[in-house]
Design a protein that fits this description.
two-stranded parallel ribbon; 8 helices; 4 strands
Length: 204
């Protein structure tokens, strides 16, 4: 990560913590009131092929002891009503501002993968994780909705894993490599504003 990109992340994450602070406090209260504890969900994700970190989100699903793999239709029954609303608005990702401030994430970059996929596809992620993982990115903007539709058709963990490995990982890796070739502060601004625009289009 370049010093310009790190300054970009620190400045905007700090600004958003101040601006969104009251909203975050209200979300914590609403989640506690409507679905109880825990408020947050911490999941292991990979920063590099060998270094992991805890990715923080607001909890959107009921808690189980053996939650593994990406979310397909086989997990949909666990999504709480409040969680569905948070996911639809992408408000569940607000706690990732903490990950940005810590340096685990950037605003823009490939989405941080699960350890199991990094271990199964080491050549892919050795390349993809040359960039610091991000909250949003080219793959998130252009492929996220299609990925959701693909995984929503999967009714078993095996189906979900097959579709994710066969279709989603190669396509997202291709888009992440395109981002790497063209990464700049201006490009990061463009992707952030596209993400904000997509959020407003979802609301309306």
């Amino acid at each position: 990560m370049t010093w310009r990109k790190r300054i970009f992340d620190l400045f905007f994450a700090s600004l958003l913590v101040v601006i969104l602070g009251p909203i975050i406090v209200w979300l914590i209260w609403r989640i506690w009131r409507e679905q109880g504890r825990p408020i947050f969900y911490a999941a292991e994700r990979m920063k590099t092929p060998s270094r992991s970190f805890k990715l923080w989100k607001f909890r959107t699903m009921t808690v189980v002891n053996d939650d593994q793999g990406v979310s397909g239709a086989h997990k949909s029954a666990r999504i709480t009503p409040t969680g569905a609303w948070l996911r639809r608005k992408r408000l569940d990702e607000f706690p990732q501002l903490w990950n940005i401030l810590k340096g685990d994430l950037s605003f823009v970059g490939p989405r941080p993968p699960l350890r199991e996929y990094v271990e199964r596809f080491p050549e892919v992620y050795a390349d993809v994780l040359k960039s610091r993982p991000g909250v949003t990115g080219l793959a998130t903007i252009t492929y996220h909705k299609h990925e959701e539709k693909l995984l929503a058709r999967c009714t078993t963990p095996g189906q979900t894993d097959d579709v994710y490995c066969r279709l989603c990982i190669p396509m997202k890796a291709r888009l992440d490599r395109i981002y790497q070739r063209h990464q700049s502060t201006c490009y990061d601004f463009d992707l952030v504003f596209q993400t904000i625009g997509n959020l407003f289009r979802r609301k309306h």
